[in-house]
Amino acid sequence: MTIDLNNIHIVPEKCVMTNFIGDDWMEAYFALSSYTDNIKKNIARQINNNIKVDVLCGRIINSGVTVACGLCVIERGYTGLFNVVVDETQRGKGYGREICESLLMAAKRLGAHTSYLQVVQNNLMALNLYTKLGYKTLYSYWYRVKKEATE
């Protein structure tokens, strides 16, 4: 899905933003995503440490607890929106929209003109959020899996 950022004019409210992937952001992402496996956590850290373009990390904190987080990367005028997660008990309160809008506006200030993302087709809550933000489907794809030989 993609969106033209030139038509977006939002004033972010509650988002704590950094231009690096810090331990606070990573721990919040792991908690909200229910990551408990240390091997997966280490792989995620390695992947994020290898990002070589500009990055923005956002968190929304309510009563001292992170209730939403997200990340975007910025390269050559494009920003990819990734790892948007809202605490399951806090969904439906606008935190997903707030984290996305905050990241998109910060990316726009850094020169991004277009945003893109990937979303699983059966993730209806995410599709609804991204559509409300103005994202349009660019194309769909799927992974082909080779069938196992049967005896």
Features:
six-stranded mixed beta sheet; alpha+beta; about 150 residues; Aminopeptidase; about 25% strand; globular
Instruction: Estimate the helix proportion, in percent.
Output: 25-40%
**Structural class of the helix and strand makeup?**
alpha+beta
CATH class: Alpha Beta
In total, the number of strands is 6
Any overview of this molecule?
It is a single chain. The chain is an alpha+beta fold and 151 residues long. It has a single domain (2-133), classed as Aminopeptidase (3-Layer(aba) Sandwich), CATH 3.40.630. 31% of the residues lie in helices and 26% in strands. The protein has 4 helices and 6 strands. The protein has helices spanning 23-32, 38-49, 95-109, 124-133; strands at 2-4, 15-18, 54-62, 65-75, 78-86, 114-116.
